[in-house]
Amino acid sequence: MAEDGPLLNFFPDPPPFFKHFTTENLARLKEAESAVSSGDDAAHEDLSTGPKLSPEQILALPTELRYLIPPPPPSNDESFHVFGEPAKSSGNNNFTQTLEFISKTLGAQFVLSDWNYTQLYPSAASPSVEASSTAHSTDANIDRQQYLNRFNRSILLEYLSLLGILTLDPKSEHKDKKLKHILTLVCNMHALINEYRPHQARETLIGIMEEQVRRKKAEIEGIKAIEGKVVGVLDGFGMAVNSETEVENRDDAKNVSQKDAEEDKRKEAQRHLWDVVDDILAH
Predict the structure, then answer these.
(1) For residues 31 and 158, what is the distance between their CA atoms, to the nearest angstrom?
(2) Global pTM?
(3) Rounded to an integer, what distance in angstroms lies between the CA atom of residue 121 and that of residue 145?
(4) CA geometry: angle at 39 spanning 33 and 42, to 5°?
(5) Residue 82 is inside which H or E element, if any?
(6) Can you tell me the distance from the alpha carbon of 20 to that of 17, in angstroms, rounded to the nearest whole number?
(7) Taking CA 93 as the corner, what is the angle to CA 123 and CA 188, rounded to the nearest 5 degrees?
(8) Where is the sequence biased in composition, kind Basic and acidic residues (predicted)?
């Protein structure tokens, strides 16, 4: 690595306007908002976020204070760019985009021309069975499993019919119609299966939470087992201390009895000596 080369950062520097987020500027912005709330423009006040400045009042503020006011959140239908890609607050309909890409690709490769996705199950926006809307079903009352079974049986029947057509005439025009119908049925099954994603997410979260509860319970049981072992060790220490105390007490009592016996022997010897002295002096 060159010693005189430029020093490169692993991460880019923050935007330069972060320097304007100071305590002094925040206090100045609060003063400006307070002036608005106490003036004639108090109608812009929001109880949840405080007084709001009108666009004209925001433009009248100094540059360092305008940076402290966040822009309003985009609406559900308003588009904005994230990493160069258009996005919406309500989310992008990737399923529709995927089907449009498939349709264009099949037409460009001269495989299936003029194929468009048709929704074959009811939805909240279109209660009919045959619907041309690409919106997914949001009605929780429809029996998705029943429609999936129907589509599955229809695909099998259409596939057998397609095999019969190819057996008789591989270049028949009815072949493309069958292929388009099979592709439409498969895409409808795919759309219905995608509607189980929220249920899958909930079940996944439930499984994760149950695993966390199981792990916590196992930790608690382990702590209780360790607690029992510690209590057993402490009880063993207590029993050992008590036994040592009893031994010491027995030793002390034994020593006292030995001293008493020795004292009695000494007194008995002295008494016998005095008796001998009395006998000698009596003669």
Answers:
(1) 73
(2) 0.46
(3) 11
(4) 70
(5) strand 79-82
(6) 6
(7) 45
(8) 247-269
- Over residues 188-203, the pLDDT tens digits come to 999 999 888 888 899 9
- Examine the pLDDT at 18 and tell me if it is beyond 70: yes
Residue 209's pLDDT is what?
95
Q: How far apart are CA 99 and CA 116, in angstroms?
A: 8
3-state SS, 204-261, equals HHHHHHHHHHHHHHHHHHHHHHHHHHHHHHHHHHHHHHHHHHHHHHHHHHHHHHHHHH
Residue with tokens 């008789």: 168
Q: How far is CA 42 from CA 32, 35, 46, 249, in A?
A: 12, 9, 9, 89
Question: Measured between alpha carbons, how far is 198 from 206 in angstroms, rounded to an integer?
Answer: 12
Residue 124 to residue 138: CA distance in whole angstroms: 6
Q: Give the residue ranges of DSSP H helices in the chain.
A: 23-38, 55-60, 63-66, 94-108, 144-168, 174-194, 197-282
Which pLDDT band holds residue 73 (cuts at 50, 70, 90)?
confident
CA 165, 167, 170 angle in degrees (round to 5)? 70
Q: 32 CB contacts (<8 Å, ≥6 apart)? A: 53, 57, 61, 65
Q: Cα separations (Å) of 209 from 202, 212, 216, 246?
A: 10, 5, 10, 55
State the pLDDT at residue 205: 94
Distance between CA 182 and CA 158 in Å, rounded? 7
The whole-angstrom distance between residue 69's C-alpha and the CA centroid of its chain comes to 31
Q: What is the pLDDT of residue 90?
A: 67
